[in-house]
Amino acid sequence: MPEYKNIKFEFADGVARIIFNRPPLNVLNIEMMREINQSLEGLIGERNLRLIVFSAEHKAFSAGV
Description:
The protein is an alpha+beta fold. It is built from one helix and three strands.
């Protein structure tokens, strides 16, 4: 599984979790959006996938772009 700088990615028991981790407000930037896209592309064809959960650490889910 790739290492990411701005997100955390977990996949277990059919649940993929994409956790925004860019303090302090999880403001999206190009690098973070690429990481999100890369993690989603990695799930293509995953037969056990049942759910994708987006969540965040720090003060805000996302303060935008």
